[in-house]
Each structure stands twice: as structure tokens, then as C-alpha cells.
């Protein structure tokens, strides 16, 4: 890979490559409803709404469905989103350079993080977004 191309990716920021399509769901919804919503919207994760302003957001991913519903043989019509989601979330700032996002993802073992501008979630940054930002 050309040194310049990697440097440009490492200096790009979360807002430059994030997915702006954020889909939300309530924690009391069933996993079956969440699966339908993820398929309908073509997304691999859902941000779980806060119950109130003092609450933290959560996230439910395809991996959560596979490892916490399918693998143990649980019924997705009975399992609720709050039972399988991750909460609280690790979030990144829109201005955070991708090299730091990649380092954060690697160090704590996550694949995606909502992008939070201090007031609202403005996107989702995934390792796939970072990967496709590399110009070769």
C-alpha cells in the first residue's frame, strides 16, 4: 500500500466515512421485531433508545442475535432487545481521526460505535467503514 494512501485514511475523521443511517429500537421490543427491522432497513445494528435523558443508549447487533439467541436456541419472539443488547455504548466524536477509532475498536474488541456530536447520535462508524476508506 502506498504510504500516502494509508496516511490519508489515518487522518480522515469519523464523520468523513460514517454511515448516517441510524436505526433505533426500544429495549422492550422482541428480538424477532428487531431482526425484521434490521432486514427491512438493511443494517447490521440497531441503537437502543434511552428510557429517559439520564439513561444510556444501547446497541444490538447481528452478532448479538447469533450468539445470544440462535446459538443457545432461544425463541426470538420471547427474547427482548434489552436482554441481548450491549449497554452502555462506547461512542466516538465526529472529529476523531480514524487511526484512533481503529485503535479504540481493536483495544476494546468492538466492531462499531455510534458517532455522537455532544447532542445527538449523528451516525454509526464501523470497521467496515474504516476498511473501505483505504485507497489502494
User: Could you give the distance between the termini?
Assistant: 6 Å
User: What is the CATH superfamily classification?
Assistant: CBS-domain
Instruction: Return Rg in Å.
Output: 16 Å
Report the total helices.
7
Structural class: alpha+beta
Order of helices and strands: HHEHEEHHHEEH
Q: Which stretches of 5+ consecutive residues score pLDDT under 50?
A: none
What do we call the CATH topology?
A: CBS-domain
- What is the total number of structural domains? 1
Helix content estimate:
25-40%
Q: Using the coordinates above, name the CATH class.
A: Alpha Beta
What would you say this structure looks like, in words?
This protein is α+β, with helices and mostly antiparallel strands. It has a single domain (about 5-130), classed as CBS-domain (Roll), CATH 3.10.580. The chain is about 40% helix and about 15% strand. It has seven helices and five strands; from the N terminus they run ααβαββαααββα. The chain has helices at about 5-10, 15, 30-40, 60-70, 80-85, 100-110, 125-130; strands at about 25, 45-50, 60, 110-115, 120-125. The protein has a three-stranded mixed β-sheet with strand order 1-2-3. Strands 4-5 form a two-stranded antiparallel sheet. Strand 4 and strand 5 (about 120-125) form a beta hairpin. The longest helix has 11 residues, at about 30-40. It is globular and about 45 Å long. The relative contact order is 0.24. The mean pLDDT is about 95.
